[in-house]
């Protein structure tokens, strides 16, 4: 990964972006940007979308909380500065009588960053809690429930690599996973997450490198109280490809759902860092007032109400993650 100096190039990138065709138009001449240009483009688009009010930032204060069960584990609570008294009920996409609107097709032009490939494009997340929160979406509609493909993962990996300190990518899949949009998308946030390493990193290290597992080999992370399967990524330059990542996803999915013969599609979260891919099967979306998506398993919880804050402090984050996951 290259560390980028941000030499005022954002302005140059903005003007380059401005002169290019926007994402919803079909422009076969639009070139995909280089890695360094990509990060500059992300910064420039984010600044301009915030200034124009196209992207909304929820103001939060970061609190680091030690878990009750295991005080070695630290969680990042992002507590909304405007705490509501009651949490909002989870919103359904396509509410009664109203057709669901797909926010990714067409997407808002002000949120478009760049095309990553003929099949994938990069957008800013409209409702963000951390700066430069991104979405990799398919340019044509594909259901979120279809398996992560080499194309999804190579586009996602490319964006992670463009971030100065690397990125954390995630995929919420299924009705209990915390997903809200049915159009296929992965999400990426820049690391570090408030200086606390992603929760699963240490457990994944123990289950793979510590146990001498070969790169890509799926392992159960038994140190955690909930079911979690992970694979170490190889460290050699160029060894991580979209195809290899898709193979790892399939292996983790098979390990997690081998013995499952229930009805409907299983719900799960996938997390990807420079070092690991991890998959966590889910049983429910929320425990008490606390709704959880992949970010919860990265050790980061968004707190929007007093009730949620009190609940997390009383139960402990690990207990909540176990209840919405699947105990071993
Ligand atoms: P998920 O809830 O995991 O399915 O992720 C969908 C993401 O899309 C959420 O994080 C939303 O903040 C984001 N989102 C919702 N509407 C838009 C929009 N119009 N443009 C870009 N991102 C959006």
| CATH structural fold name | HIT family, subunit A
**Quaternary structure type:** single chain
Ions, cofactors and other bound molecules: adenosine monophosphate
Unreliable stretches covering 5 or more consecutive residues: 1-22, 92-97
Please give the largest β-sheet.
9 strands, antiparallel
Q: Spell the H/E element sequence.
A: HHEEEEEEEHEEHEEHEEEEHEHH
Proportion of residues in helical segments: 25-40%
CATH architecture call: 2-Layer Sandwich
* Spatial extent as radius of gyration: 19 Å
Strand order of the largest sheet: 4-5-7-9-8-12-13-11-10
Distance between the termini: 36 Å
Count of domains: 1
Active site: 185 (nucleophile)
Organism: Elliptochloris bilobata
Region (Disordered): 1-34
Biased composition (Polar residues): 25-34
Question: What characteristics describe this protein?
Answer:
Ap4A_phos1/2-like, 8 helices, ATP:ADP adenylyltransferase activity, alpha+beta, disordered N terminus, globular, binds adenosine monophosphate, 16 strands, three-stranded mixed sheet, HIT family, subunit A, single chain
């Amino acid at each position: 990964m290259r560390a980028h100096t941000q030499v005022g190039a954002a302005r140059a990138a903005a003007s380059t972006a401005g002169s290019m065709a926007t994402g919803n138009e079909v422009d076969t001449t639009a070139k995909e940007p280089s890695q360094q240009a990509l990060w500059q483009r992300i910064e420039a688009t984010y600044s301009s979308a915030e200034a124009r009010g196209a992207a909304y930032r929820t103001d939060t204060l970061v609190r680091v909380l030690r878990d009750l069960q295991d005080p070695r584990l630290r969680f990042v609570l992002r507590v909304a500065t405007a705490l509501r008294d009651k949490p909002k009920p989870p919103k359904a996409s396509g509410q009664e009588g109203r057709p669901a609107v797909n926010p990714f097709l067409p997407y808002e032009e002000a949120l478009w960053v760049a095309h990553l490939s003929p099949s994938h494009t990069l957008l800013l997340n409209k409702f963000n809690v951390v700066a430069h929160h991104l979405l990799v979406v398919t340019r044509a509609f594909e259901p979120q429930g279809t398996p992560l493909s080499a194309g999804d993962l190579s586009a996602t990996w490319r964006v992670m690599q463009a971030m100065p300190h690397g990125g954390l990518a995630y995929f919420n899949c299924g009705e209990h996973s915390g997903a809200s949009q049915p159009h296929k998308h992965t999400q990426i946030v820049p690391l570090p997450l408030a200086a606390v390493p992603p929760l699963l990193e240490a457990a994944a290290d123990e289950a793979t490198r510590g146990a001498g597992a070969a790169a890509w080999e799926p392992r159960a992370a038994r140190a955690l109280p909930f079911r979690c399967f992970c694979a170490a990524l190889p460290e050699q330059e160029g060894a991580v490809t979209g195809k290899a990542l898709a193979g790892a996803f399939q292996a983790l999915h098979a390990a997690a759902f081998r013995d499952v013969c229930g009805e409907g599609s299983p719900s799960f979260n996938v997390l990807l860092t420079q070092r690991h891919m991890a998959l966590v099967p889910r049983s429910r979306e929320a425990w008490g007032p606390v709704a959880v998506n992949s970010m919860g398993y990265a050790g980061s919880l968004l707190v929007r109400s007093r009730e949620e804050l009190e609940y997390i402090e009383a139960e402990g984050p690990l207990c909540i993650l176990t209840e919405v996951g699947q105990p071993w």
